[in-house]
Amino acid sequence: MSLAKRAATTLKQVRASGPLVQCVTNYVSMDIMANVLIAAKMSPAMAHGGVCGEAAEFAKIASGVNLNLGTLDEDWAIGAKASAMVCKDMKKPWVLDPVGFGALSYRTGVIKELIEMGPTVLKGNASEIITCAKLTYPEDFAVMPATIVPDGEATEAKGVDSTICSDTVNTKLLDAFAKKFGGVVCMTGKYDYVTDGASEKYWVKHSVPMLQDFTASGCALGAIITGFCATGSQMEPAQSHACSTAQAVAYYTLTGKRTMEDPSYSRGPGSFRQGFLDTLRNLTEDEVEQLSKIEKVE
């Protein structure tokens, strides 16, 4: 079965099963993340309370947990760590988006602890992923080249945006990083790279520059990945998390590409955001099978 056909099959199962995705996420992304999940026929839950115990309690009934700490405080950190621990104990998928890692000391410390807990998937742009590797495990990655072209600014970020193109990143660093923390790395950008550091490595090649034009589109991708990983692990036979992640990215970015190609939805950021939600719901499994560009790296 082709990779695109497998992606279409998983999407059909996601839509039929409607996984419950808990989002310990930031204020900026809550609205769009919830609506993206609903458009994809998943169920969102924004339970993030740490001290009150709601994040950990809800993680016990969720299909998976998506952690995005863009607007971080102590209570959010407690909730994130507690829900991640529940997922580890119950063998549920949890996805970590390391927003702003390396920019501020408190969030860098919290996210570093979460990486060391071994997320199922670590999803971020090129600058975030490279910085995560080099600051979390400096003894392994400090001197490893970040890119395949000379670039003195390679690991810097502009706010939460990447300063480097994903297709210039040294993927051997990403492979080694995934193997080190024991999960999947999903690097987003012009093209998206997914790796478990061993036998499964994928490029997803849908370039959708308009996804950068509305806030939290990248945050919402983490929630979609969570739902696909939860569903894929329950299929017969069970799918690897790397494969499910690549499928989720393909579905999401193909949705963006199809939206961008529609004149009624490409007038600007507002119409694109509206159209993106519509297309998430209306994109057919046949379109995913016929149009997805997923390449496995041998």
TrEMBL record:
The keyword Transferase applies. Its EC number is 2.7.1.50. HAMAP family: Thz_kinase. Keywords: ATP-binding, Kinase, Magnesium, Metal-binding, Nucleotide-binding, Thiamine biosynthesis, Transferase. Pathway: Cofactor biosynthesis; thiamine diphosphate biosynthesis; 4-methyl-5-(2-phosphoethyl)-thiazole from 5-(2-hydroxyethyl)-4-methylthiazole: step 1/1. It catalyses: 5-(2-hydroxyethyl)-4-methylthiazole + ATP = 4-methyl-5-(2-phosphooxyethyl)-thiazole + ADP + H(+). It holds the Pfam family HK. It comes from Prorocentrum cordatum. Its cofactor is Mg(2+). This is hydroxyethylthiazole kinase.
